[in-house]
Design a protein that fits this description.
With 60 residues, the chain is mainly alpha-helical. It has one domain. The protein has three helices and no strands. Helix 1 runs antiparallel to helix 2. The longest helix has 14 residues.
Length: 60
């Protein structure tokens, strides 16, 4: 996922994506730059594994 977001960032130079990537980055000691990101990531992975993620485009 990190590489995907990084690829999109390189084509968009979005500051929002830069902040997200910074939060997701790992530190030299192996820790995550933003420890809260680990909980968000774990929750998202569990939702995906439980088939609880709706990827259908819903424009209203």
């Amino acid at each position: 996922m990190y590489d995907f977001i990084l690829t999109i960032y390189h084509s968009s130079n979005s500051e929002d994506l830069a902040v997200l990537l910074g939060s997701m980055s790992t530190l030299p000691d192996g820790g995550i730059a933003d420890p809260a990101m680990h909980e968000i990531w774990s929750t998202s992975v569990n939702r995906a594994l439980a088939d609880e993620v709706d990827t259908k485009l819903n424009i209203k």
